Each structure stands twice: as structure tokens, then as C-alpha cells.
Beta-amylase
Amino acid sequence: MATDIQKLIGTSEEDDDEEMDMDVKEEDDEDEENGGKNIAAQIMAGVGGGMASNSSDSQFQHQQQFQEQVTTPAGGARRSRPLEEKERTKLRERHRRAITARILAGLRRHGNYNLRVRADINDVIAALAREAGWVVLPDGTTFPSRSQGSRPAGGTSAAVTSSSSHLVSQQTPPASLRGVSPGYQTSVEYNTCRMKGVFMPNPSPYDLSSSTQPQIPAVVGEGGEQTESDLHIGGSMDTINDKQIVDIPPIPKLPERDFAGTPFIPVYVMLPLGVVNMKCELVDPDDLLKQLKVLKSANVDGIMVDCWWGIVEAHTPQEYNWSGYSRLFQMVRELKLKLQAVMSFHECGGNVGDDVCIPLPHWVAEIGRSNPDIFFTDREGRRNPECLSWGIDKERVLRGRTAVEVYFDYMRSFRAEFDEFFTDGIISMVEVGLGPCGELRYPSCPVKHGWRYPGIGEFQCYDQYLLKSLKKTAEARGHPFWARGPDNAGFYNSQPHETGFFCDGGDYDGYYGRFFLNWYTRILIDHGDRVLSLAKLAFEGTQIAVKVSQLSRNFF
């Protein structure tokens, strides 16, 4: 690739010379025509080190006479007019930019480099470094990625900085570089390619073994003595003996999840939904450990696991059993992996991809049998026990607690139980479930109620608590008769054009339709705000994530 780029740049430079030559000839012709009028202009010769033909030499000598002195009508002498020189400078700059644009276009088209519109040599160097798997910081500092592991003895290394100035010349011996192993002088042969003064070495065979510790090789100091130094890339340049050499300071540590401008993407693998059974025990600890070791050998960052509300707080309110998850987390710690925990407050089973059945806690199901309005309800009165209705977020119907308080107590228990994992950074993120399938959406498309794609689904606001909220909002607006759901919104498998509410020019765009949709959406947003504000208190200092579904399907 580097050789191709060199050829491309070389060809473009030749084109540049030819175009400049043509411009000079045109200017010579103009000067000859205007010679009788005592008008002449200075020309530029020797662009790129060589413009020449027999005819152009004679023209140059002829024009040189006009260049030395130009007579004015008053008999005096003056230099070339500055405006003409400015125009020529602008013309040369346009040619240079056009050639550069063609070079960058070739890199984008044939080399698949993602270069910005007004890219320069710094961007080209950064793109080359990223393609080689190196880390490029926003300030241009470039160094090998930590994920590449340690370097073997005598392996190749190079310090590259995104700078338009030339680095060490091809003839400069490697010993003049501070921070370069002396082994390069004897055991390593560079395969260099020249591109604007930048040299790229052959890639070294990095050792990706997790058991190998990074080795710090001896390096050459300023006085020729060997010193210990970390072979990281620096962005500063020193000048010694009129030559630019790379000075290598220690690199700053990247903050957690700050991977902007780097090729590193953290990879977490989701564990099976039923890795912990209803007794909160690991289903097959030995097989699970083998699988975790396989993931470790594949250099993944960690695993993601659902912490089911229906398992941990299954039988009695505020009695939490984390035993199975504690054993799992210990395995993860011993393998030096990381964790992303999911607070799953919904039912598992009945949805696409569900291979196990994990219902809501038994004590919640008992409350639901006597008060089914704690679940979402459609217009025909069918209940959906997949998760609790958002209408009871502030209703004390769960043994003296509101739904939001139940969620908060569960998250506080998890934080207290695994405090050491948070302190040690083993748990890097917590995802908070906010609805069916853990997503912030209404359960408007339940398969158990006959929905099939691409049906529009149905509104889920007919439990007594949401209807009470709707009534209160309608009365506050001065329209108590708006305290109802739409009666022309179709059924689960209807199409929008088949309904009077969602068709073009339908009721959704009327006064009542706008009022209802605004209230319906506000209920969803308020639920997310309440739960996430408490999650922020429970998991202070930890990354928090949520799942938001596509609105085209789950708007209801």
C-alpha cells in the first residue's frame, strides 16, 4: 500500500510540474505580446527542480531581460506589478490544491481511507496508523494499541507523530533516535517507503498471549548509554545537531470508555438467559467456566448477564438471594474479565429469542390476581403480566411500596451485595430495565394476544391507574370528555390506512388526538425519568445504560 501511495504521489508531482510548465509558457507568450507596450511580468522557472526544453530556455533568457528592469513612460524603472504576481501565486496554489485533492481521492477510492474533505498529510499519517492497529489520540500522538499485547525481544517499533514536518531522514542511523531499541541496528531490517518524509516499518509479530508480561527493552540514551524506557509514542520533537528526533514521554492513561479516535471497541458477550435457575443457582458451573475461559482466550473484554427480579426477590418482598450471581461474578473476577449487569424487571418467556421462562416474583403475581390493574391492559380488557403498569409508579399497591420504590430497593441491594466489584472496576456498566423486554416502550405488540408483524398494535392504557391519570389530565385541560382512549385506532394487526385514527388526515392530528398522544408519550417519558434518577443514586459513579426500541413499531 505504501509503495502504491508513493507512486501515486510521484505521478501527481510530475503532473504538477507539467501544469506549471504550461502556465509558464502561457505567461511567456503574454509577455512577448505586451513587450512593445513596456509591460512585463516576472515568471517562475524550475518548479519541482526541472522545467526544461530547448525552446523554453531561450524564452526564459528573453523574459529575464524584462524581469531585471522595466521602463515606465516617465523613463524610470520599477519592478513587476504586485497584482500580477499575486494572481500567479493564487494560480499556483489552485494547482497544488487540485493535485492534492486528486491524491486524496485516490486514497479514498482505492485504499478505502476515511479522510475528511480538507484532509492533509497529518490525516494521511493518522489513517495509516489506524489501519496498522495503532492508537491515534486527538492531539496527533500515535502509539501501538494496548490490545496488541507485548512486543517480543528484537521486534520492530517506530514512533510516528502526525506532523507535516519531515521526520528522521532515510540515511540517518537508527542510533540517533531516542527511545528506539539498539536491536534494530543489527537484527531488524527496515522496509521503508518514502512518503513526505514518513517511514513505516514492517509489522512485528506481536505476542498476544495473556500470560506474557509487557517487556521494557533497553534503549539508547542521549549519551549513547542504554537506559530503560517505555516504547510509547510521543508528540514532541527535539532538535539536536540540526536534526529532528523523536522525544518519547509517558502516555496518559485512557479513561474508561473513552475510545474516541482509536480503533478499540470494547466487546462484551451476553450470557444465556437461563445461566441462573429459579433457585438462584448456576445451572452448570463447570461448563460455564470452560465457556468463560474460551471467551478469555478470544480477548473479549467481558460478559453481560441478566439479574432477574423474578429470581432474586422471588418469594418475599425485600428478601434478596444473590448466591448464584455471586458465584458467577467470582468466576469472572478470577479470569480478569469485566461485567455488565442488567436489572431485569420484566418477565422472560413468550418473546422472540426467549428459551426459558422466568416470571415476575411470586408475591407480585399474588397481588396481580387480586388486583389485575397493576398490569398493562388493552382496550378489550386483556392483561399483560410481562411487566408492571407505569400507572402504579407512585401507587402504594405492592405491600405498602410503590413500583418505583420496589425497583430502587432492588438496585440498592445489588449495589450493596457487590460493592467490591464496583470498587475494583469489575462491574463497568449497569443496564436498567424500563419496560417489556427491558426496553422503554409500551407492550403494544404482544405475540400472546395474536399480534403479528407488521401490525400496528394497540394502546395499553386501560388499567384503572392510567385511566385515572388520563381523566385528571383531561379535566385540567378543561375537556373531561377526553378522558378516554381512541375508539377508532384499529386492532393489533391493523394497518394505519385501515384506521380512522392513524390514516392520512385522521383523528391523530385533531385536538383530541394531539392531546391523547401527548399524554400517552408523557407517561412513558416520566417513567423513564423516575427510574433512571433513582438508578443514578444507587449506582453513583457507574455507567448506566438503557434500551430504547424503534418508535416505528412500538410507539404505542
About this structure: The radius of gyration is 36 Å.
